[in-house]
Amino acid sequence: MHAEPTRALHALSDISAAPPDPILGLTEAFKADPNPSKINLSVGVFQDETGRSPVLECVKQAEKRLLESESSKSYLPIAGDPVYGQQVVRLVFGESVADSKRIASIHTPGGTGALRVAGDFIRNLLGPRRVWLSDPTWPNHPGIFRAAHLVTEVYPYFEATTNSVAYESMREKLAHVPEGDVVVLHGCCHNPSGADLAQEQWSDLADTLRARSLVPLVDFAYQGFGDDLEADAAGVRTLFNAGLDMLVSSSFSKNFGLYRERVGTLSVVTESPDAAARVLSQLKAVVRTNYSNPPAHGGSIVATILSDAELTDLWKKELAVMQARIANTRKSFVEGLRKAGAKRDFSFLERQKGMFSFSGLNREQVERLRAEHSIYIVGSGRVNVAGITTANLEYLCNAIASVL
Ligand SMILES: Cc1ncc(COP(=O)(O)O)c(C=O)c1O
User: Fold this and answer.
1) Minimal-distance CA residue to ligand 1 atom 15
2) Ranges for all domains in the chain classified under CATH 3.90.1150.10
3) Which residue out of 132, 138, 202, 315 is catalytically annotated?
4) Which of 250, 253, 355 maximizes ligand 1 atoms within 8 Å of its Cβ, making it the mutation to test the pocket?
5) SS3 state of residue 344
6) What is the pLDDT of residues 223-262, one digit of tens each?
7) Distance CA 233, CA 227 (A)
8) What is the pLDDT of residue 128?
9) How are beta strands 164-165 and 158-159 bridged, if at all?
């Protein structure tokens, strides 16, 4: 509908509704479903064996300390608390680069905030370069970069027939994209496929990126959910050690369970401390006109934990429990499907990393699971394995076997 110029004051009332978010829509339908056996595998948060997304004990303890020690609610600096920034750089790039002045790092509202700042920074400072996304990718990626007025393209990533990374096709594509373009990579636990690059593929990718002066932007939203904090950082560190200029967006929503606190980081790796200082000034300019400075609470929690050996130990233990639950659930899921008589090899689910996997179920099967069994899965067949519990496993596997 077009507003008439003379009705300018009413134009706001004439705006049509935005399309609903497909995943949140499923959660609404799940809540309204009266079936006591219903299962929601569509959400994007970690859930424990009882189906809850708990506050970690290390977070509770850090919050207690903050309640005692916090003396002001005045603004944080535009780039956030420098202690937080240093701790995050160590976590992502490793202890050995703790004092690297080549990395400009800012505290952002979540991983999404980091990606959007990265998008604005690329558009403003590097010009109209294309941003290449994996096919498939996290559904918010295209929208974030388009909102920053960047053109997005896709490179092949997942091969459905083998349920693994289509690395040869990926490399072939990237070897022919325009020089200087930006390539978004998932640091680990690829969302939505669960299929990650192998170590030798990261090394090979570093050469491909360098050969065409491509700029990697690593989206690192699940550090610690795949194998452990160090192993999951191997890809990022391979690109870093190869000497590439790169951007890394980190999210602490999942690994600290701080979803609603909105805590993340954008790190930009440059070739010199002088370049990093210039980049930092430009990142601050982007932030200043966007949200001005970051929210403090989530970042203070992360900084408190990472600055204290005891709390860091506790966090690592709690993170390992979450990681183990995901890995064990993958095993039980594969075993459960086999026991339920599923006539398909689902063993790939066990090899994949993180909360998400493409189950290989098609739209019709997903639809039948919802209509006949109250099992909610995204239309693409992506499942959040953390939604599976000992209590719902058998029901789930029998239902899946019945629609195959
Ligand atoms: C691949 C990927 N990137 C970024 C994010 C954003 O995380 P945050 O909640 O910290 O904004 C998510 C969250 O689901 C994600 O899956």
Assistant:
1) 221
2) 21-44+319-403
3) 138
4) 253
5) coil
6) 999 999 999 999 999 999 999 999 999 999 999 999 999 9
7) 10
8) 81
9) antiparallel
CATH of segment(s) 21-44+319-403: 3.90.1150.10
pLDDT at 7 over 90: no
- CATH for 57-311? 3.40.640.10
* Residue whose CA is at the smallest distance from ligand 1 atom 5: 111
Segment 368-400, tens digit of pLDDT: 999 999 999 998 899 999 999 999 999 999 999
Spell out which residues line ligand 1, taking CB within 6 angstroms.
44, 110-112, 138, 186, 191, 219, 221, 251, 253, 259, 264
Q: Where in the chain is the domain with CATH 3.40.640.10?
A: 57-311
Q: Nearest to residue 182, comparing CAs of 206, 214, 208, 223?
A: 214
- Ligand 1 atom nearest to 253, measured from its CA: 10
The widest CA-to-CA distance across the chain, in whole angstroms, is 68
Per-residue pLDDT reduced to its tens digit, 91-134: 999 988 855 899 999 999 999 999 999 999 999 999 889 999 99
Please state the length of the chain.
404
Catalytic, 315? Answer no
Measured in Å, residue 334 CA sits from the centre of ligand 1 at: 26
- Cα separation, 243 vs 280, in Å, equals 19
